[in-house]
From TrEMBL:
Superkingdom of this protein's organism: Eukaryota
Molecular function per GO: actin filament binding; cadherin binding
Any matching Pfam family: Vinculin
Organism from which the protein derives: Tetranychus urticae
Protein name stated in the entry: Alpha-catulin
Gene Ontology CC annotations of this record: cell periphery; cytoplasm
Length: 739
């Protein structure tokens, strides 16, 4: 390639003569053409090889995750599960990073949306995989628990298959093979006995295994009512040229029948208002009348042999377009009205709380009633999502809404299965955790539908939404982010996380740009300027109730003097100070000066949370069994989940200023979620210490001498190893993204 470049430079060399540039003309101009072709061929070959290497790397990572998933599905005990899950976690993180990089490089909106939605589900489903597998191992005879686990495995494989199909289609096998078989001058190269059939079969579209909820033909638009109407409008516009003759009439009628058939999703819906249904039927009849008039004029023109459009034909075309546009507006209004009615008249968290309480009490008379209520509610949410899919004009939103509708249909029965598992084993903490995780995932789906409603309204004003889903973190902590935002949901116990995320998102502003200054940043952490084990850490105010704006300490926490011998409170205050520094960074205040300082601080915060978990875990061994201990463990067991989410968010690669701002938003959001449960855990520890007269200051000594392997919490027999050993320096923490 270097030689070719030198030849081109020589051929195109310009010399100076008395201030005038004279081009040296060569008699053999064909040499210039041959050199240019050879150079372009070499560049093309290099680009294709580089792209193929990236694709092969991503497919290899996907295959490793599939193998780990198969190993997870076939484990027989908790020990094997812990090892298999650790391997699966590390490989899943690698796959997520590669998919993110690849989707950011793709310029095709549909490919970005398909890969982004699959990656989002894989990240969201990791906790469902963990809890459902735990429940299945703990209760192997429970059919509902087994169905929970099997469904998660099936949907994760389906998401990976969609990534596989998108990646395979992102390289053109014909160009790749032809490029491999050209020499440096662009001439065909001999195969030397090597066959390329294996390579062709790997990237051949014939092997594509697209899930049934994805679209098979990338050249065709998605099958929605609005796309069908758009195609019908295009055929009507072509009537000016074709004059509705011959085969064109059949295609025009076929396009009309196609969009009318899709409007039946609106007219046949049980949740569509009667007046809206009547309007749709009347508008479709009006469109049919106008189309028949257009076809009659076309027949007359065909019989008369006229080759130019007449004024009557032009008027019929305009009337038909006006009628079908009225149908389009009515479809959008019907979908949005139905969505508004859903969110206005239903209290999602009230339904979930009633469902949870009913299955906890095990009242057989109320079980069937609430199962039917929840099933009807799920059908309504799925119906709204399907209608939104039909009326949005954004291809990205069409793909996301279609996949969300599929997840609603698949996982709403699994929420009930998780309820049945808890009903069968009411004292099982693992069954309760499994139900909470499935309910959290359902709330995320419900929130996604709420966001799609707002985005559909924005689409109608011409706003481009493709960037809203480009860097979606996928963990439901939206960010729904740079990406999808969380909607405003009623303030109940389950909505605390949502509101916390909303408040942090409002705080993140353009001031989070990197500002390089001469002074060194102060990063709190194990190797930073402030040691959380130092008793003087209690001298500053830190947020005890996660008030990151003011740094106020919860009044229920011990005073500074009393906290000197209290390892749990002192470490929690150190973590709160770290979180406060991170929040101040968004306003251009505090000791953190660059985004890298912020991410480093977040890593230290996750590391301290691991140590905090270990301290509280050993303190819980002193607490007698009962409601207080159960409340303490419920709060504590949430900490590893948010530590994992924080670490995962910090490790996400970013390219560009907008992506960095989104990552800063997500990191601070996850840090605040983590601190909410840290503070709740500290409050529970203080309540237990006061109630049972326990010594919280002995937690450090106990953590050095007491092995957790022989002590288990309620319903934790044999599984304690999954959540103990939280040290970050040696061993593998359960909150680490590799688990």
């Amino acid at each position: 390639m270097y030689l070719l470049r030198c030849i081109l430079e020589q051929l195109c060399d310009l010399t100076t003569d008395s201030g005038n540039y004279n081009v040296r003309f060569y008699s053999d101009r064909s040499a210039l053409a041959r050199s240019a072709r050879a150079l372009l061929s070499s560049v093309t070959r290099v680009l294709l090889i580089a792209d193929t290497v990236v694709v092969k790397q991503l497919l290899t990572a996907k295959d490793r995750v599939s193998i780990s998933l198969n190993r997870l599905e076939n484990v027989a005990n908790f020990t094997e599960f812990v090892k298999a899950y650790a391997i699966f976690g590390s490989e899943m993180v690698e796959l997520a990073h590669l998919v993110s990089d690849r989707s950011n490089c793709s310029k095709d909106e549909r490919r970005r949306a398909e890969m982004g939605s699959a990656r989002r589900f894989l990240e969201r489903s990791t906790m469902m995989l963990l809890t459902s597998a735990k429940a299945c191992l703990r209760h192997p005879d429970c059919e509902s628990a087994k169905e929970n686990r099997d469904t998660v495995f099936i949907e994760m494989r389906r998401a990976m298959d969609s990534i596989h199909s998108v990646i395979k289609d992102s390289v053109l096998p014909q160009l790749t093979i032809s490029a491999f078989n050209l020499d440096s001058c662009g001439h065909p190269r001999r195969s030397h006995g090597r066959s390329s059939h294996g390579h062709v079969s790997r990237y051949s579209s014939s092997n594509r295994s697209t899930p049934d909820w994805m679209i098979d033909n990338d050249d065709e638009p998605l099958t929605t009512a609005f796309n069908a109407i758009k195609r019908f409008e295009e055929w009507v516009e072509l009537s000016r040229i074709t004059l509705c003759k011959g085969l064109f009439r059949e295609r025009l009628i076929s396009a009309f029948d196609a969009f009318v058939e899709l409007t039946q999703d609106f007219t046949d819906s049980a949740y569509t208002r009667h007046e809206n249904r009547e309007k749709l039927l009347l508008l479709c009849d009006r469109t049919k009348i106008e189309l028949n008039q257009l076809l009659r004029l076309g027949i007359c023109l065909d019989e008369s042999g006229t080759t130019n459009p007449t004024s009557d034909l032009e008027e019929a075309i305009l009337h038909t377009l006006r009628a079908v546009n009225d149908v389009k507006l009515q479809l959008r209004n019907t979908a949005l009205e139905q969505a508004d009615e859903l969110f206005r008249l239903t209290d999602e968290f009230d339904i979930i709380n009633q469902l949870r309480n009913t299955f906890l009490t095990g009242d057989p008379e109320r079980l069937n009633d609430y199962v039917k209520i929840f099933s009807d509610h799920c059908d309504h949410v799925g119906e709204v999502c399907r209608l939104l899919h039909n009326v949005t004009t954004s291809e990205t939103l069409q793909i996301y809404s279609k996949i969300t509708e599929n997840h609603i249909n698949v996982f709403s029965p699994q929420v009930l299965n998780a309820c049945f598992t808890l009903c069968a084993y009411p004292n099982s903490r693992i069954a309760k955790d499994n139900l909470e995780v499935f309910l959290d995932f359902w709330i995320i789906l419900y929130s996604d539908v709420h966001q799609y409603v707002k985005d559909t309204r924005e689409c109608s004003t011409g706003v481009d939404l493709s960037g809203n889903y480009a860097n979606y973190p996928g963990n439901g902590s939206c960010s729904q982010s740079g990406s999808v935002r969380w909607p405003g949901i009623p303030n109940t116990k389950g909505a605390q996380q949502v509101q916390a995320q909303q408040s942090v998102q409002q705080q993140v502003s353009s001031q989070s740009q990197q500002t390089v200054q001469q002074q060194q940043p102060v990063i709190l952490g194990p190797n930073g300027s402030m040691d959380p084990n130092d008793p003087t850490m209690g001298h500053g105010k830190v947020p005890g109730s996660v008030d990151l704006e003011t740094g106020e300490t919860d009044k229920n926490w011990p005073s500074n003097n009393a906290s000197e011998d209290n390892d749990i409170v002192r470490r929690a205050k150190a973590m709160s100070q770290m979180a406060l520094n991170m929040n101040q960074f968004t306003r251009g205040e505090g000791d953190l000066k660059t985004t890298q300082d912020l991410f480093t601080q977040a890593e230290f915060l996750a590391e301290e949370a691991n140590k905090f978990y270990k301290l509280v875990r050993h303190f819980s061994y002193q607490v007698p069994s009962g409601l207080s201990k159960k409340d303490l463990l419920d709060n504590l067991d949430k900490v590893p989940t948010f530590v994992q989410q924080l670490q995962f968010t910090v490790k996400q690669p970013t390219v560009g200023k907008a992506a960095t701002f989104t990552k800063v938003d997500n990191v601070i959001k996850e840090a605040k979620n983590l601190m909410m449960f840290v503070c709740s855990t500290v409050d529970s520890c203080i309540n237990c210490a006061s109630k049972f007269n326990l010594d919280m200051g002995a937690a450090r000594a106990r953590s050095r001498t007491l092995s957790p392997s022989g002590r288990h919490g309620e319903d934790d027999s044999g599984y304690e190893g999954m959540s103990s050993g939280m040290g970050s320096k040696s061993g593998t923490a359960s909150s680490d993204p590799n688990i």
